[in-house]
């Protein structure tokens, strides 16, 4: 684990080497083939611990990639969160009743200028007494087999994910052209509310800078935290990663993306230690815009729908090329030839342009109840990397 920490730190600090290979967001409801994921505890809190341990051991056995396993069980700090004053209203389409993945349609709740008044700043109330109780109970249940440690929250800022959930995508894309003033007003209200929310997180010591993962990618860096944190010292913005994305803007021009998204919150990102931008939207024609605005930009998401070579050429050695392999390659049948070809393309491009890079397979809606799809993907990618870097020892 310490060797993995060193390699991940180097990668995030732009020292190119063998990239990490990780798998996240597994379709757990499809994987309990041999009963090893079946929970037996009756108490709800104990079941949370049991689920974490069973899933960790299961993934380590079947599709570990380069996963980092901590010698502690972490307790997420408790708090209440009042929300933005709006609830999601719409319909969900399920393809598998057991799956948490579903397609949504949303009712437009912000169609009129007067609707903007519905947006409220979230109020956060921490519960340190509950944190102490949870820590004590977890320590008792684990009986010293693992340490127990409190953790804060990853810092994310997704205003357009919220707006899309309150409106749907079509009204947003139409308003970009027909009613830009209205859309600016909506974004300004959501941004102000979101910033008020994350400033409360900093105030109450609810941010995290110790987790090995942030946003389903490696987090270790010499820049996180930005200073030595003594016992009980809470992280500040300057000690943590922040991540943002605007997936609804996949087909929007760079200048419009900057005008309606990045300009609103970039000052918050530039107060943080490091910024990671991107999710499923292609960014190959927006990297220059991101570099211009985000002074702490360190990691750029490269989706299967992006032009990889244009991304690699612009990313170079100045940022991490955060490759998201195509989850469709494990959805029905995992073909090693297809997986190898995708992996080789990324390796060759990152070598050509000197990019530090990583592989993080995520958004895995289904593997068609075939655990072997994940094992094949993991084995194929790691063996492909062995051909370039030598057989991995850890």
Concise overview:
This protein is 40% helix and 14% strand.
Secondary structure tally, helices: 11
Per CATH, which architecture?
Answer: Alpha-Beta Barrel
The poorly predicted ranges are none
Q: What is the name of the CATH topology?
A: TIM Barrel
Could you describe the largest sheet, including whether it forms a barrel? 7 strands, parallel
Helical/strand content category: alpha/beta
| H/E topology pattern | HEHEEEEEHEEHHHEEEHEHEHEHEH
**What sort of overall outline do the alpha carbons produce when their principal axes are compared?**
globular
Write structural notes for this entry.
- The protein is of the alpha/beta class.
- It has one domain: TIM Barrel, CATH 3.20.20.210.
- Helices cover 40% and strands 14% of the residues.
- It is built from eleven helices and 15 strands.
- The strands form five sheets. The protein has a seven-stranded parallel beta sheet, covered by helices on one side. A two-stranded parallel ribbon has the order 2-7.
- Helix 4 (159-167) packs across helix 5, helix 6 packs parallel to helix 7 (254-269) and helix 9 packs parallel to helix 10 (336-353).
- The N and C termini lie close together (8 Å).
- The relative contact order is 0.15.
- The model has no long low-confidence stretch (mean pLDDT 96).
């Amino acid at each position: 684990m310490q060797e993995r920490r060193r390699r991940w730190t180097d990668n995030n600090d732009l020292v190119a080497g063998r990239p990490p290979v990780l798998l996240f967001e597994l379709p757990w409801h499809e994987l309990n083939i041999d009963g090893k994921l079946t929970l037996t505890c009756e108490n709800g809190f104990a079941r949370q611990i049991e689920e974490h341990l069973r899933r960790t051991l299961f993934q380590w056995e079947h599709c570990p990639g380069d996963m980092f396993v901590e010698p502690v069980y972490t307790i997420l700090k408790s708090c209440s969160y009042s929300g933005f004053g709006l609830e999601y209203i719409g319909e969900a389409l399920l393809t598998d009743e057991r799956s948490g993945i579903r397609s949504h349609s949303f009712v437009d709740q912000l169609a009129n200028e007067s609707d903007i008044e519905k947006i409220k700043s979230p109020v956060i109330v921490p519960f340190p007494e509950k944190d102490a109780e949870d820590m004590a109970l977890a320590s008792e249940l684990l009986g010293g087999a693992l340490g127990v440690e409190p953790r804060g929250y990853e810092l994310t800022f997704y205003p357009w994910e919220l707006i899309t959930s309150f409106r749907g995508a079509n009204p947003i894309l139409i308003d970009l052209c027909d009613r830009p003033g209205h859309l600016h007003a909506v974004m300004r209200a959501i941004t102000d509310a979101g910033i008020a929310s994350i400033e409360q997180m900093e105030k109450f010591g609810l941010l995290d800078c110790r987790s090995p993962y942030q946003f389903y990618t490696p987090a270790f860096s010499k820049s996180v935290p930005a200073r030595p944190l003594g016992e009980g010292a809470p992280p500040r913005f300057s000690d943590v990663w922040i991540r943002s994305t605007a997936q609804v803007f996949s087909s929007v021009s760079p200048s419009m993306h900057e005008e309606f998204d990045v300009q609103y919150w970039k000052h918050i990102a530039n107060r943080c230690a490091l910024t990671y931008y991107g999710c499923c939207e292609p960014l190959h024609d927006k990297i220059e815009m991101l570099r211009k605005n985000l002074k702490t930009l360190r990691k750029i998401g490269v989706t299967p729908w992006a032009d990889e070579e244009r991304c690699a050429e612009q990313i170079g050695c100045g940022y991490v090329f955060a490759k998201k392999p195509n989850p469709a390659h494990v959805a029905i049948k995992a073909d090693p030839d297809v997986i190898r070809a995708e992996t080789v393309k990324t390796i060759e491009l990152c070598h050509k342009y000197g990019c530090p890079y990583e592989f993080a397979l995520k958004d895995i809606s289904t593997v068609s109840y075939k655990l072997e799809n994940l094992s094949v993907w993991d084995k194929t990618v790691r063996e492909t990397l062995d051909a370039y870097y030598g057989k991995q020892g850890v």
